[in-house]
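Board notes (copied after class):
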Amino acid sequence: MISLRSVSKRYARDQVAVGDLSLDVDEGELCVLVGPSGCGKTTTLKMVNRLIEPTSGAILINGQDVLGIDPVQLRRRIGYVMQQGGLFPHQRVAENVGVVPRLLGWGKDRVRSRVRELLELVGLEPANYERRYPHELSGGERQRVGVARALGGDPPVLLMDEPFGAVDPVTRGRLQQEFLELQGALNKTVMFVTHDIEEAVALGSRIAVLSQGAVLEQYDTPQEVLGRPASPFVADFVGGDRGLQRLGVTCVELADLTRVPIVAPAMALGEAFRMMRASESRLAIVLDGAERPRGWVVGQVAERNGRPRAHEGSPRAGGTPRRSEDPVAEHLRPINATVPLGSSLKDALALMLQHDDGFVAVVDEERYVGVLTPDDVHGAMRRSIGGEPVEV
């Protein structure tokens, strides 16, 4: 756990870089410091490992004040990653990654084993990379090596200063996802600096939005920062498209789903129609014996002489008319899109728009649990900030 207690940093002529900042980062949490350039994010980060000495206040790591720890010993217990990895250009990859283990006095065999373990952890084959120099690597590879080096001594705390800011957008997105997976496996306590609110939302367990002088405008989950900005500054910083950004941090839950009739492949089409009318549903889902979605069938859309009329034609070649006695299996439409329970609304909506069926089927592992419609997406967005569903 990292605790900042009324921390400040003042320079000559009383220039305030950081003024009276207090926040806690819980064990295993990924806290993102975000704000405009020059607002004190990097200064705050560097005070944690005493690359910059605070003017006043206290910084605690697991209850111990860092000001009472020898700075060199402190930094060996804290991983630090910066833009472009900050690698030593004259050292090979293996030497860069093994810096901290060597400083800790580990034997050669133990250092070599740790280096290979870490390179594999960040997705770099040791045999292909350990003897290369930094200039022989791509930007994304240098960042992976930088992360591996920061993890060398297995530190409980990781500080990251815009580590993905100098790579192209595609590589950046891939590195972000890989780091999230790595963090899920290692459960480090992380402070991460960025000026990009989209990166903060994608990575953070909690986001600290800072204005000039590291004034803490809001410190909360991405959902709350996007859904309930605490000040005009936060609302302006996160942008007018914050509603769209919330799609990426709001997950599909069981309570969000629409339940439509489930019918058997051998059921008569007329019986399926009656089930759909009774539940006021335009469609029914057909499952196989393992409760996996096999397809869907659309209901009746009009009446003729006061009696329900089926759609003219069917998905089968030639537009064969649908008869009530036909088995449902003869008129199945394919399930074009399924998403796992817990996926982001952004991913679900993207699939829905791509296939234009008006819904996506949601599965728990492979078992069908419901469908998600555009109305369900709206309801889930309101639910995410405690709003009541709106009846339309």
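Comment from the instructor: Residues 2-247 form a domain with the Rossmann fold fold (CATH 3.40.50.300). The chain has two domains: 2-247, 254-384.
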